[in-house]
Design a protein that fits this description.
The structure is a single chain. The protein is of the alpha+beta class. It is built from seven helices and six strands; from the N terminus they run H-E-H-H-E-H-H-E-E-E-E-H-H. Helix 1 packs across helix 3, helix 1 packs parallel to helix 6 and helix 4 packs across helix 5. The protein is globular.
Amino acid sequence: MVETPGMRWGRKAARRLARLGSVRIGPGLTGEELARVEEQFGFEFADDHRSFLTAGLPAGGGWPDWRYGNPDGLRQWLALPGKGVLEAVRFKGYWASSWGARPDGVPDAEDAAADHLAAVPWLVPIFGGRYLPAGRGTYGHPVLSVYGADIICWAPDLVDYVLQEFGEGNVGKRYEYDGWEMSASAEFWAEYLAWSALEP
């Protein structure tokens, strides 16, 4: 198999996490296990995320258990970013520019937004409320932090994220930088991120 940049990126993040020694890491997911997860939940991991999980599956509180986890719980976790967008449509008047005219009435707007979201790349949980955009053939996405309707860039990529979230002296504390200038690497999420940054 030819090694791709995304594969190298994911393995680098996995090595960094293992060296930090703060997280229990089990055997990595096999190709068959990854295919089962993707078929079961309807998305494809980004290349760096896939490589990260094949190098070793982090375990413990806050980590999605793609091997033995409760499917309903994982579905709910995957659904949280979309629910946050629908919350923004309902309560904050959000409407993506690519969606055309906003329907009159909140229920119709929510229904239309849900239809549009079905075509948007999923955000896939890494740990807790931190997510990477899905998409085979992609890598190097910024890590996004999702809390309800609010989304911010938490780290410029998966490799840096590992140090920011789990590095000694940095647990749970993101570095100071102007995250709003970072692209979300997926058109819809980049637009939503810019909108979220302007919300009070």
